């Protein structure tokens, strides 16, 4: 029995996925923005990552902040929701991801242990929002909107 061509297409054709992400605009008490530096490429970015199945988007934001910086936040406030064709990621396989990104604003809870990582080899640093360093494309897009 030969399967119809339309059934085979699901195994051969490129796939499009919608990926939900949480991004965090983490600030300290002075209003400075916490950024993470990419070790190899040198650009800076805000914490961002995928929401896991069964996870609330706010919980994903808290988790990403913790995983990427070691800090926790006193609150996560949804600032904006981003989607559209400019948030498309094309993979070498031909598959594509379309991102839906919830940007949260957070006031981080600072402590001495985590503060010791700022300005160290860990690649974490606070910046005045009016004088940000070179940002990766996604972080620049989210912060400019």
How would you characterize the overall build of this protein?
The structure is a single chain. It contains 4 helices and 8 strands; from the N terminus they run αββββαβββαβα. It has 145 residues and is α+β, with helices and mostly antiparallel strands. Strands 1, 4, 5, 6 and 7 form a 5-stranded mixed β-sheet that branches. A 3-stranded antiparallel β-sheet has the order 3-2-8. The longest helix is centred in the middle third of the chain and has 13 residues, at 57-69. It is globular, with a radius of gyration of 18 Å. The N and C termini lie far apart (54 Å).
Core attributes:
five-stranded mixed beta sheet, alpha+beta, 37% strand, 145 residues, 4 helices
Structural class: alpha+beta
- What integer value in Å does the Rg equal? 18 Å
Specify the overall morphology.
Answer: globular
**Helix content class:** 10-25%
Please give the count of helices.
4
Overall number of strands: 8
């Amino acid at each position: 029995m030969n399967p119809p061509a339309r059934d085979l297409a699901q195994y051969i054709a490129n796939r499009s996925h919608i990926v939900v992400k949480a991004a965090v605009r983490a600030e300290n008490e002075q209003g400075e923005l916490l950024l993470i530096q990419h070790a190899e490429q040198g650009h800076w970015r805000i914490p961002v990552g995928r929401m896991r199945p069964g996870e609330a988007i706010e919980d994903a934001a808290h988790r990403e902040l913790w995983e990427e910086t070691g800090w926790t936040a006193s609150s996560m406030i949804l600032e904006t929701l981003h989607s559209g064709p400019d948030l498309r990621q094309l993979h070498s396989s031909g598959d594509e991801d379309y991102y839906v990104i919830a940007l949260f604003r957070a006031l981080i809870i600072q402590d001495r242990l985590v503060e010791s990582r700022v300005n160290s080899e860990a690649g974490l640093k606070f910046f005045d929002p009016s004088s940000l360093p070179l940002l990766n494309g996604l972080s620049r897009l989210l912060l400019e909107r």
